[in-house]
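Extended Data, panel c. Modelled sequence:
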Amino acid sequence: MNFDCWKDVFQHISLEKRSQLSRMNPQFRNLHNRLKMNFESFVISDGSPKSQVIIDGKYIWNIQEDSPESSVVWREREQVCDKEYFYLSRYELLRKLVEFYLNRSGTAIRYLDITNHPYGLELCEPLKVHHLKWKLSICSSRYDYTTWFNCLRFHPIEKVEIDLDGEDNTVLSEDVISSAWELCIKTRIPLPIQAIMSFKSKVLSVNQEISSEEVLKLCERWIYEKRTIGTRITFEKSENEDLESIGSILKEKYLVNQKTSKYGGIVLEIQQNNVKLQIYEIETVKFSIEVIE
Protein backbone atom coordinates (compact mmCIF):
# COMPACT_ATOMS: atom_id res chain seq x y z
CA MET A 1 0.00 0.00 0.00
CA ASN A 2 1.24 3.50 -0.81
CA PHE A 3 1.42 6.50 1.55
CA ASP A 4 -2.06 7.81 0.74
CA CYS A 5 -3.68 4.45 1.47
CA TRP A 6 -1.90 3.99 4.80
CA LYS A 7 -2.61 7.65 5.62
CA ASP A 8 -6.36 7.01 5.37
CA VAL A 9 -6.01 3.95 7.59
CA PHE A 10 -3.93 5.72 10.24
CA GLN A 11 -6.32 8.66 10.48
CA HIS A 12 -9.14 6.35 11.58
CA ILE A 13 -7.36 4.45 14.36
CA SER A 14 -6.76 5.58 17.93
CA LEU A 15 -3.70 7.55 18.98
CA GLU A 16 -2.60 4.65 21.19
CA LYS A 17 -2.73 2.09 18.37
CA ARG A 18 -1.00 4.50 16.01
CA SER A 19 1.83 5.01 18.52
CA GLN A 20 2.19 1.23 19.04
CA LEU A 21 2.49 0.58 15.31
CA SER A 22 5.05 3.36 14.89
CA ARG A 23 7.27 1.76 17.53
CA MET A 24 7.06 -1.65 15.85
CA ASN A 25 7.77 -0.74 12.24
CA PRO A 26 10.11 1.94 10.73
CA GLN A 27 7.71 2.55 7.82
CA PHE A 28 4.81 3.10 10.19
CA ARG A 29 7.01 5.38 12.29
CA ASN A 30 7.78 7.50 9.23
CA LEU A 31 4.09 7.64 8.37
CA HIS A 32 3.16 8.53 11.95
CA ASN A 33 5.68 11.39 11.95
CA ARG A 34 4.34 12.81 8.69
CA LEU A 35 0.68 12.92 9.71
CA LYS A 36 -0.71 16.05 11.32
CA MET A 37 -2.46 15.59 14.67
CA ASN A 38 -5.62 17.15 16.07
CA PHE A 39 -5.93 17.29 19.86
CA GLU A 40 -8.81 18.51 21.98
CA SER A 41 -6.36 19.11 24.84
CA PHE A 42 -2.62 18.75 25.38
CA VAL A 43 -1.05 19.27 28.82
CA ILE A 44 2.69 19.85 29.39
CA SER A 45 3.29 19.87 33.14
CA ASP A 46 6.83 20.40 34.42
CA GLY A 47 6.46 19.93 38.16
CA SER A 48 8.60 18.50 40.92
CA PRO A 49 9.38 15.64 41.30
CA LYS A 50 7.31 14.49 38.32
CA SER A 51 6.56 15.83 34.83
CA GLN A 52 3.49 14.83 32.85
CA VAL A 53 2.12 14.88 29.33
CA ILE A 54 -1.64 14.40 29.22
CA ILE A 55 -3.32 14.02 25.82
CA ASP A 56 -7.07 14.57 25.44
CA GLY A 57 -7.50 13.88 29.15
CA LYS A 58 -6.98 10.11 28.81
CA TYR A 59 -3.44 9.37 27.59
CA ILE A 60 -1.22 10.18 30.59
CA TRP A 61 2.56 9.92 30.50
CA ASN A 62 4.53 10.33 33.75
CA ILE A 63 8.24 11.17 33.82
CA GLN A 64 10.29 11.05 37.00
CA GLU A 65 14.02 11.18 37.69
CA ASP A 66 15.54 7.85 38.71
CA SER A 67 19.03 9.32 39.16
CA PRO A 68 20.80 12.54 38.07
CA GLU A 69 21.46 10.93 34.67
CA SER A 70 18.43 8.71 34.11
CA SER A 71 14.63 8.85 34.22
CA VAL A 72 11.70 6.50 34.31
CA VAL A 73 8.58 6.82 32.15
CA TRP A 74 5.26 5.07 32.61
CA ARG A 75 1.77 5.29 31.19
CA GLU A 76 -1.26 5.45 33.47
CA ARG A 77 -3.55 2.68 32.27
CA GLU A 78 -6.16 0.62 34.05
CA GLN A 79 -4.39 -2.01 36.18
CA VAL A 80 -1.21 -1.60 34.08
CA CYS A 81 2.02 0.16 34.99
CA ASP A 82 4.82 -0.66 32.53
CA LYS A 83 7.91 1.37 33.42
CA GLU A 84 10.72 2.14 30.99
CA TYR A 85 14.12 3.54 32.00
CA PHE A 86 16.20 5.95 29.88
CA TYR A 87 19.66 7.49 30.31
CA LEU A 88 18.19 10.96 29.89
CA SER A 89 17.24 13.69 32.34
CA ARG A 90 13.59 14.29 33.13
CA TYR A 91 13.68 17.51 31.07
CA GLU A 92 15.26 15.85 28.03
CA LEU A 93 12.72 13.05 28.14
CA LEU A 94 9.82 15.51 28.46
CA ARG A 95 11.20 17.41 25.47
CA LYS A 96 11.40 14.26 23.33
CA LEU A 97 7.87 13.20 24.28
CA VAL A 98 6.41 16.61 23.38
CA GLU A 99 8.30 16.67 20.09
CA PHE A 100 7.10 13.16 19.22
CA TYR A 101 3.46 14.25 19.30
CA LEU A 102 3.61 17.92 18.27
CA ASN A 103 6.54 18.33 15.89
CA ARG A 104 4.58 17.80 12.69
CA SER A 105 3.15 20.31 10.23
CA GLY A 106 -0.52 21.25 10.52
CA THR A 107 -1.08 19.98 14.06
CA ALA A 108 -3.99 21.69 15.85
CA ILE A 109 -4.72 21.89 19.59
CA ARG A 110 -7.91 23.35 21.02
CA TYR A 111 -6.59 23.65 24.62
CA LEU A 112 -2.84 23.80 25.28
CA ASP A 113 -2.18 23.76 29.04
CA ILE A 114 1.37 24.43 30.29
CA THR A 115 2.75 24.39 33.83
CA ASN A 116 6.14 26.10 34.14
CA HIS A 117 8.50 25.18 31.26
CA PRO A 118 7.08 24.22 27.84
CA TYR A 119 9.95 21.82 27.10
CA GLY A 120 9.82 20.47 23.56
CA LEU A 121 7.97 23.37 21.94
CA GLU A 122 11.18 25.10 20.80
CA LEU A 123 11.76 22.66 17.92
CA CYS A 124 8.15 22.09 16.89
CA GLU A 125 6.53 22.91 13.57
CA PRO A 126 3.93 25.74 13.60
CA LEU A 127 0.93 24.80 15.74
CA LYS A 128 -2.67 25.98 15.56
CA VAL A 129 -3.69 26.65 19.18
CA HIS A 130 -7.10 28.11 20.05
CA HIS A 131 -6.76 28.42 23.84
CA LEU A 132 -3.44 28.65 25.73
CA LYS A 133 -3.41 28.29 29.51
CA TRP A 134 -0.07 28.79 31.24
CA LYS A 135 0.76 28.68 34.96
CA LEU A 136 4.26 29.88 35.83
CA SER A 137 5.52 29.73 39.41
CA ILE A 138 9.15 30.73 38.75
CA CYS A 139 10.92 33.95 37.80
CA SER A 140 10.36 34.39 34.07
CA SER A 141 13.42 36.62 33.55
CA ARG A 142 15.69 33.60 34.14
CA TYR A 143 14.59 31.99 30.88
CA ASP A 144 14.39 32.93 27.21
CA TYR A 145 10.87 32.04 26.12
CA THR A 146 11.34 33.54 22.67
CA THR A 147 12.39 30.28 21.00
CA TRP A 148 9.84 28.24 22.95
CA PHE A 149 6.98 30.19 21.38
CA ASN A 150 8.23 30.33 17.80
CA CYS A 151 5.82 27.51 16.87
CA LEU A 152 2.87 29.62 18.10
CA ARG A 153 3.61 32.77 16.07
CA PHE A 154 2.11 31.62 12.77
CA HIS A 155 -1.53 31.37 13.85
CA PRO A 156 -3.20 33.95 16.17
CA ILE A 157 -4.32 32.51 19.51
CA GLU A 158 -7.94 33.16 20.37
CA LYS A 159 -7.60 33.10 24.16
CA VAL A 160 -4.65 33.13 26.58
CA GLU A 161 -4.97 32.60 30.33
CA ILE A 162 -1.73 33.21 32.23
CA ASP A 163 -1.14 32.82 35.96
CA LEU A 164 2.19 34.23 37.20
CA ASP A 165 3.25 33.49 40.75
CA GLY A 166 6.81 34.83 40.42
CA GLU A 167 8.13 38.30 41.09
CA ASP A 168 8.97 39.06 37.46
CA ASN A 169 6.42 39.68 34.70
CA THR A 170 8.70 40.21 31.67
CA VAL A 171 7.20 37.21 29.88
CA LEU A 172 3.99 39.22 29.42
CA SER A 173 5.79 41.29 26.79
CA GLU A 174 5.97 38.15 24.62
CA ASP A 175 3.88 38.98 21.54
CA VAL A 176 2.21 35.55 21.46
CA ILE A 177 0.68 36.42 24.85
CA SER A 178 0.11 40.17 24.62
CA SER A 179 -1.64 40.02 21.23
CA ALA A 180 -4.14 37.23 21.96
CA TRP A 181 -7.73 38.16 21.07
CA GLU A 182 -8.79 37.51 24.68
CA LEU A 183 -6.22 37.76 27.48
CA CYS A 184 -6.80 36.87 31.15
CA ILE A 185 -3.93 37.76 33.48
CA LYS A 186 -3.45 36.73 37.08
CA THR A 187 -0.30 37.99 38.82
CA ARG A 188 1.01 38.03 42.37
CA ILE A 189 2.47 41.52 41.91
CA PRO A 190 0.22 44.21 40.33
CA LEU A 191 1.17 45.41 36.85
CA PRO A 192 1.86 49.11 36.19
CA ILE A 193 -0.85 50.85 34.20
CA GLN A 194 1.65 51.48 31.36
CA ALA A 195 2.05 47.71 30.93
CA ILE A 196 -1.72 47.15 30.98
CA MET A 197 -2.27 49.84 28.34
CA SER A 198 0.30 48.21 26.03
CA PHE A 199 -1.65 44.96 25.60
CA LYS A 200 -3.19 44.59 22.14
CA SER A 201 -5.95 42.17 23.12
CA LYS A 202 -9.55 42.96 22.23
CA VAL A 203 -10.79 41.58 25.57
CA LEU A 204 -8.56 41.92 28.64
CA SER A 205 -9.06 40.82 32.24
CA VAL A 206 -6.63 41.56 35.09
CA ASN A 207 -6.93 40.44 38.73
CA GLN A 208 -5.90 43.75 40.26
CA GLU A 209 -7.39 47.02 41.34
CA ILE A 210 -7.03 50.15 39.20
CA SER A 211 -7.31 53.62 40.68
CA SER A 212 -9.53 56.39 39.33
CA GLU A 213 -6.43 58.20 38.02
CA GLU A 214 -5.36 55.06 36.18
CA VAL A 215 -8.84 54.69 34.68
CA LEU A 216 -8.48 58.23 33.34
CA LYS A 217 -5.08 57.39 31.78
CA LEU A 218 -6.50 54.28 30.16
CA CYS A 219 -9.49 56.19 28.75
CA GLU A 220 -7.16 58.86 27.36
CA ARG A 221 -5.03 56.21 25.66
CA TRP A 222 -7.99 54.38 24.13
CA ILE A 223 -9.52 57.62 22.83
CA TYR A 224 -6.18 58.70 21.35
CA GLU A 225 -5.65 55.31 19.69
CA LYS A 226 -9.31 55.14 18.58
CA ARG A 227 -9.72 51.57 19.81
CA THR A 228 -12.30 49.54 17.91
CA ILE A 229 -15.82 48.79 19.08
CA GLY A 230 -15.94 45.87 21.50
CA THR A 231 -12.52 46.50 23.07
CA ARG A 232 -12.97 45.82 26.79
CA ILE A 233 -10.97 45.60 30.00
CA THR A 234 -12.21 44.16 33.30
CA PHE A 235 -10.46 44.79 36.63
CA GLU A 236 -11.03 44.29 40.34
CA LYS A 237 -13.10 46.74 42.35
CA SER A 238 -11.27 48.55 45.14
CA GLU A 239 -12.86 49.09 48.54
CA ASN A 240 -11.95 52.77 48.25
CA GLU A 241 -13.12 53.25 44.65
CA ASP A 242 -16.58 53.24 43.13
CA LEU A 243 -18.16 54.62 39.98
CA GLU A 244 -18.92 57.89 41.76
CA SER A 245 -15.23 58.52 42.50
CA ILE A 246 -14.21 57.40 39.00
CA GLY A 247 -16.82 59.74 37.53
CA SER A 248 -15.46 62.69 39.55
CA ILE A 249 -11.97 62.20 38.09
CA LEU A 250 -13.27 61.75 34.53
CA LYS A 251 -15.34 64.97 34.79
CA GLU A 252 -12.13 66.95 35.21
CA LYS A 253 -11.39 66.29 31.51
CA TYR A 254 -14.52 64.91 29.84
CA LEU A 255 -18.23 65.49 29.70
CA VAL A 256 -19.57 62.45 31.59
CA ASN A 257 -23.06 61.12 31.02
CA GLN A 258 -24.31 59.07 33.98
CA LYS A 259 -27.04 56.51 33.30
CA THR A 260 -28.75 53.64 35.06
CA SER A 261 -28.44 50.17 33.62
CA LYS A 262 -31.39 47.81 33.24
CA TYR A 263 -30.08 46.04 36.36
CA GLY A 264 -30.17 49.26 38.40
CA GLY A 265 -26.43 49.95 38.43
CA ILE A 266 -24.58 53.13 37.48
CA VAL A 267 -23.13 53.42 33.96
CA LEU A 268 -20.71 56.19 32.99
CA GLU A 269 -20.31 57.26 29.35
CA ILE A 270 -17.76 59.60 27.77
CA GLN A 271 -17.36 60.49 24.10
CA GLN A 272 -14.40 62.16 22.43
CA ASN A 273 -12.88 62.09 18.92
CA ASN A 274 -15.62 59.75 17.64
CA VAL A 275 -14.86 57.21 20.37
CA LYS A 276 -17.50 56.40 22.98
CA LEU A 277 -16.53 54.60 26.19
CA GLN A 278 -18.73 53.03 28.83
CA ILE A 279 -17.63 52.21 32.40
CA TYR A 280 -19.86 49.88 34.40
CA GLU A 281 -19.92 47.52 37.34
CA ILE A 282 -19.91 43.69 37.06
CA GLU A 283 -21.24 41.51 39.88
CA THR A 284 -20.43 44.25 42.48
CA VAL A 285 -16.77 43.16 42.61
CA LYS A 286 -15.43 44.23 39.21
CA PHE A 287 -15.46 47.15 36.79
CA SER A 288 -15.33 47.11 33.00
CA ILE A 289 -14.37 49.77 30.47
CA GLU A 290 -15.68 49.12 26.97
CA VAL A 291 -15.63 50.88 23.61
CA ILE A 292 -19.25 50.93 22.40
CA GLU A 293 -19.00 53.36 19.45
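Helices lie at 3-10, 15-24, 26-34, 90-102, 175-178, 193-198, 212-225, 243-250. This feature is highlighted in the accompanying rendering.
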